[in-house]
Write a structure and sequence with these properties.
The complex is a heterodimer of chains A (143) and B (110).
Chain A (H helix, E strand, L loop, with lengths): L9 E7 L5 H8 L12 E3 L8 E5 L4 H13 L5 E5 L1 H5 L21 E3 L6 H22 L1
Parallel strand pairs in A: 1-2, 1-3, 3-4, 4-5
Chain B lengths: L8 H20 L31 H4 L1 H6 L1 H10 L4 H24 L1
Classes of the chains: A alpha/beta (143), B mainly alpha (110).
Chain lengths: 143, 110
């Protein structure tokens, strides 16, 4: 797979909107020596202003809605959003909770969904690659 | 006799120009896609709304944190004494005036 427009490393910012931490642990697992996504240039960064991709976990608790929206707005264009886990996709076991305003795609636009409770690291990596391809196309559109 | 270190303003100017050129090089290679005037150029505070520009400063209390920490034994009772109630200040005033009068009286007798 050759990239023509997006030639640098892909930086991702991870935000937890009320997750049980299961998906967060799987995201961290992708960075461990077994999967080691950093060898492909995929790095987790500490600020959305440095990121190309937003990794969102959790079903969006009421208190987190404005925060996730603000974080999304702080990511420079073009940007991709990946929702990791069933909670962010449709609420999963929390879907009837009084304190949820999600799922994520009701708050911010989502590009890639990764179902699972929690999803396997391989699925998360595949989603990031899909986002990367989409970002490549978006980057060409910007030029 | 203490010898002065080497000093030449021309070298300083050249060094400043080189450092400025390096800074400009770094800046020119930075991310250009940030949209000015949007949240993309705002301060990131873990998703919290950043305070107004005039509110972004380090409070003097933070600067003197170590000072207050070191002198905690002194400041704690004095801060407690400053209740903000006028009656308390008057009582302190009368007490200190009485103590001063007693000291002066003893001093005048000896």
């Amino acid at each position: 797979m050759g990239f023509n427009s997006f030639k640098r490393a892909l930086w991702a910012y991870h935000i937890n909107t009320g997750s049980c931490n299961g998906c967060d642990i799987e995201i961290l697992a992708t960075l461990t020596p077994r999967y080691d996504v950093e060898r492909f240039g995929i790095v987790l960064v500490g600020s959305p202003r440095h990121a190309d991709v937003l990794l969102v976990t959790g079903p969006v608790a009421r208190q987190m809605a404005s925060r996730v929206k603000r974080v999304y707005e702080q990511v420079p264009d073009p940007k991709m959003v990946i929702v990791v886990g069933n909670c962010g996709i449709e609420g999963d076991v929390f879907h009837e909770s009084y304190n949820l305003v999600g799922p994520v795609d009701q708050i911010i636009p989502v590009d890639v969904y990764v179902p699972g409770c929690p999803p396997r690291p391989e699925a998360i990596i595949e989603a990031v690659v899909k986002a990367w391809v989409k970002l490549e196309k978006a980057e060409q559109g910007v030029r | 006799m203490v010898s002065l270190p080497f000093w030449n303003p021309v070298i300083c100017i050249i060094a400043f120009a080189i450092l400025t050129a390096i800074a400009c090089l770094f800046t020119s290679r930075g991310q250009k896609k940030y949209k000015k005037g949007t949240a993309q150029t705002e301060v990131f505070l873990s998703g919290e709304e950043p305070p107004a520009v005039e509110q972004r400063h380090i409070k003097s209390h933070n600067i003197y944190w170590g000072f207050f920490k070191t002198l905690k034994e002194y400041y704690d009772p004095t801060v407690r004494a400053h209740t903000g109630i006028v009656n308390d200040f008057i009582i302190w005033f009368i007490a200190i005036a009485a103590l001063t009068a007693v000291i002066l009286l003893i001093a005048s007798l000896t």
